[in-house]
Design goal:
Blueprint (H helix, E strand, L loop, with lengths): L2 E6 L7 H16 L3 E6 L5 H12 L5 H8 L1 H16 L4 E4 L6 E3 L8 E4 L2 H8 L4 E5 L2 E4 L4 E3 L5 H12 L3 E6 L20 E3 H9 L7 H10 L3 E5 L7 E4 L12 E5 L2 E10 L4 H11 L7 E3 L6 E9 L3 H13 L7 E5 L2 E7 L9 H11 L6 E5 L2 E7 L3 H11 L6
Parallel strand pairs: 1-2, 1-9, 2-6, 3-6, 4-7, 9-11, 10-12
Antiparallel strand pairs: 4-5, 7-8, 11-12, 13-18, 14-16, 14-17, 15-16, 18-20, 19-20
Helix pairs in contact: 1-4, 6-8, 7-8, 9-10, 11-12
Amino acid sequence: MSYLVQKFGGTSVGDLERIENVAGIIASEVRKNNKVIAIVSAMSGETNRLVEQVKQTSPVYDGREYDVIVSTGENITAGLLAIKLQDLGIPARSWMGWQIPIITTSMHSNARILEIKTENIEKKFVEGMKVAIVSGFQGISKENRISTLGRGGSDTTAVAISAAFNAKRCDIFTDVEGIFTTDPRIVKNARKLDKISYEEMLELASMGAKVLHTRSVELAMRYDVNLQVLSSFREKIGTLVCREDKMLESRMISGVASSKDEAKVTLSGVLDKPGIAAAIFGPLSESGINVDMIIQNVSENETTDITFSCPMSQVSAAEAAIHKASKKKEISFKACVIDTEVAKVSIVGIGMRSHAGIAKKMFESLAHENINILVISTSEIKISILVEQKYMELAVQVLHDAFELDKV
Ligand code: ASP
Ligand code: MG
C-alpha cells in the first residue's frame, strides 16, 4: 500500500455537491488500496471573503491574526469532506496544519515550510484510518502560532506532503483539464499538454500561468514529485509535470504566458558611472521589490536611462525606495516615469537550448502585427517581453500561431 496525495482546489470543493463528487474520487482510490492524503482548499470565494473581512476591520493588521482568520476556510472543507467520506463508510479524519504538524517559518501570510512530521498521520493509518484530509496552505510557526503559506499555497502543501510521505503521485485537481499551451480564454485553439518539464512549468507559473503555485513546482522539482494536474469536473487524463528526461521529445516552445500584473519604471538622466546600477537596485532589493526585467540604454553626455519592471502591487514601494535613495544622494536622475499600462508576454520551452532563431521568429511575428516591444529579457529557456497592455491578447495569439502550438 502506498501513499497517494490528491489536492482539491477551491472550485473543486465549491459547494456540498462538489464535495460529494470529491469524496467519490477519493473513495475510488481507497478501493484501489491507496492510502490517500487529501489536501483541500477553502470553498471558492471563501478565502477572499475572509481577507476582505480582515481588511475591513482594520487597514493595518497583525499578520498573526490575519493567518488565524484566513486559514479557517480550509478547515471547514476538511471537516465536511471527512463527514462525507465517513458517510460512505470510509474511515477519514481531518488534520489541521498544527495537528500534523507542518512547521513553518514565522513570516506570517507568506510562511515557508521547514518540516513536516509524518508519525502522527502514519500511526492513524496503521490504526485503520483510510483517508487523511489536510487543510491546505496552513502550518504552525516555531512560536506555536498558526501560519499560512501565501495565496494559492495549498498546491505547495500538497507537494510538500507528497515529498514527506514519499507518495507515488500527487494529483492536483482543479477546474481546468491540465496545463495548456496558453490561456484558453485568450487563444481558442490552446492545446492541453500531456507532459511538461518542471523547469518549463516553473517558468510558466512564475510568468503568470495561474494553475500552480510557483513554490509548489520548485518543491516538486527538488524532490522529484510525480505531479499531475487534472480536472475534478471531467474524467480525463491531465498533464504530467515531470523531469525533462521523461519527455520523449522536446518541443521548441511549450507555452506562452502572459500577465497584466506588471509595471515599467524608467529612470531617465541617470549619471552613467561605475556603481550606479548597484546604487539603484540595492535600495530596491532592501525594500523587497521583485525586479524582473532590466534594461540600460547607451549613454549620451554621460547620462543614461535605466528601465526595469516589477509587480504592479510593488510599484509604489519601488517609487518610494527610489526617491528615498535620491534624497540620500545615493542616486541622481532627471525623472522617474511609471507605466502601468503594460503586459508581459513570455514564451517558454526547453527546446530553446538546442534551437537557434527562436528570438528572431518571436520578434518578427510581433513586428508583422506592428506590436512594439518595450523591454526584452531572456533566460536559458524563456524569452519575455513587455508590450502595451492593449496588445497583450494579440501578442499571445500571434506567438501561439507562429510557433504552431496548437499542433502536437
Ligand atoms: N485558499 C487559499 C487561497 O485561496 C489557498 C489555496 O486555495 O491554495 O489562496
Ligand atoms: Mg490554486
